[in-house]
Amino acid sequence: MSDPLIVCRTTSSLREALARIPPENRGFVPTMGALHRGHLSLVEAAKARRDNPVVSIFVNPLQFGPGEDLDRYPRTEEEDLKLLNEAGVGLVFLPSVEEMFPVGMGTFVEVAGISEELEGSLRPGHFRGVATVCARLFHLVEPARAYFGWKDMQQCCLLQKMVRDLAFPLEIIPCEIVREEDGLALSSRNRYLSAEQRKAASTLSRSLRKACQAFAEGERSFMALEALVRRNLDPSLCCEYVAVRRSMDFSNPGPTVDGGRILAAAKLGEVHLIDNMPLEEFEKGEDLPS
């Protein structure tokens, strides 16, 4: 029988609980709660590497801008803890805002360059909040590895750079996107979508898939790939950007694309949707799905 789930709400209780887990076996999964199969896949990825998964649940106010959905962001603590217990997680850090950011705290982390484009330009200050909370969590948990989903590709690359720049002794492990049957990337915000909006939202992944198909067939023009994505979106989606970036460092491969991942973001009502796929999704000559 597995040990009962330990829930820590203070940094002191977290440090006490972490003393039982060797640092070299700590696999960290930071979340904002409202957990789904995508989050649980990160737990499974940690366990597959024989890491002891430590999960945090914290809705970080620093990464929400004015007019964003901080107040209505789903908070499902009881359901989340049940899922994590069933998944074999032994330790969860569930702090308050005051515990994470004590009164008088005036230190923030910014990652120049990568934080200023695409999502960064749409959501000023967002990545400053992400980098600051992750730096604090990494310091508190001291994991050997931290697991993040590729759905937030820009975030993954930003955190990899932050870890390198600040010499954190840990590795960022990006894990592949988990999708619904219709291709929609799993997200806690999907619950905001109506049935009709869900159908429209699924065209985001389908349009990226068509770009990957075109790449497999020899298309190398960024402008052509971008146009293909935009053209295949449902008219109710307001496309915010399409871009190709290299997976290692989020650099721009230029007008002639040689690989990497293709990203897109779109607004559907009040919901901001993001998704991306590796352009090498299909092998050359492979029979491509319709």
Question: Could you characterize the architecture of this molecule?
Answer:
With 290 residues, this protein is an alpha/beta fold. The protein has two domains: 169 residues, Rossmann fold; 94 residues, Pantoate-beta-alanine ligase, C-terminal domain (Pantoate--beta-alanine Ligase, Chain: A,domain 2). The chain has nine helices and nine strands. The strands form two sheets. A six-stranded parallel β-sheet has the order 1-4-3-2-5-6, sandwiched between helices. It is globular and about 55 Å long. The model has no long low-confidence stretch (mean pLDDT 94).
Largest sheet: 6 strands, parallel
Oligomeric state, counting identical vs distinct chains: single chain
Give the mean pLDDT: 94
* Alpha carbon gap, first and last residue: 47 Å
Low-confidence stretches: none
What is the count of distinct domains? 2
CATH topology of the largest domain: Rossmann fold
- Secondary structure class reads alpha/beta
Distinct helical segment count? 9
| Percent strand | 15-25%
Report Rg.
Answer: 19 Å
Shape designation: globular
Label the CATH architecture of the largest domain: 3-Layer(aba) Sandwich
Features:
290 residues; 2 domains; alpha/beta; 3-stranded antiparallel beta sheet; 6-stranded parallel beta sheet; 9 helices
